[in-house]
Recover the amino acids of this structure.
């Protein structure tokens, strides 16, 4: 009888599920600044991946996303007619300038594919992600990389975009001088806490009104990871 009781204890103990380790709260996410002039998306991806326990450098992430260093083709007025496709890979030189058209950035689909290739579970990666969805992901402790209009040092405001045709034929929404990406980590009734990879801006609170206005500019584009 004692032997059967002991066997029962062993079976129960062996059948007990292993404890599940949950990610740390987003409020404990470590801030990372961009190391290249235009690597805000890579820095943001570095932060959200770290929440999933995946550690990579910004240079490794740029390599994973791919970098198209072809210069743009300009019209007589200096406007961009053709350039690389940011939906597919980083466009231009990560140490270039958006104003001088030597570098630009990369968009959500390419960032999402890179995250998935590195083992992350991607909840969404594209346009049409509403602000309410962003806040919902954050409430569920899922970090969100969001594309916003930001010029200068923390000047978040809507600005008019233009378009060009990428070398692969895709029409690209273009925001030279203000295309930027930030990580959303917390939301209250009227404010959001964002980690801006721009070193002069950093982690700070922003009104929901200002965030949502600047977030609309690139078609509500975001990447959220589990």
């Amino acid at each position: 009888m004692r032997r059967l009781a002991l066997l029962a204890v062993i079976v129960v103990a062996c059948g007990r599920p292993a404890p599940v380790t949950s990610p740390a709260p987003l409020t404990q996410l470590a801030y990372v600044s961009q190391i290249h002039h235009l690597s805000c998306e890579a820095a943001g991806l570095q932060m959200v991946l770290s929440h999933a326990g995946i550690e990579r450098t910004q240079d490794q992430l740029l390599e994973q996303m791919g970098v198209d260093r072809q210069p743009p083709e300009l019209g007589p007025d200096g406007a961009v007619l053709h350039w690389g496709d940011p939906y597919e890979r980083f466009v231009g030189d990560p140490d270039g300038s958006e104003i001088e058209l030597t570098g630009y950035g990369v968009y959500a689909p390419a960032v999402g594919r890179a995250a998935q290739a590195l083992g992350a579970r991607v909840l969404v990666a594209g346009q049409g992600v509403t602000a309410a969805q962003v806040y919902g992901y954050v409430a569920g402790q899922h970090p969100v990389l969001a594309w916003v209009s930001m010029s200068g040092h923390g000047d978040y405001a809507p600005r008019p975009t233009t378009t060009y045709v990428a070398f692969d034929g895709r029409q690209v929404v273009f925001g030279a001088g203000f295309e930027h990406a930030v990580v959303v980590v917390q939301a209250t009734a009227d404010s959001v806490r964002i980690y801006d990879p721009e070193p002069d801006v950093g982690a700070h609170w922003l009104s929901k009104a200002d965030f949502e206005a600047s977030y609309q500019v690139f078609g509500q584009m975001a990447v959220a990871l589990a």
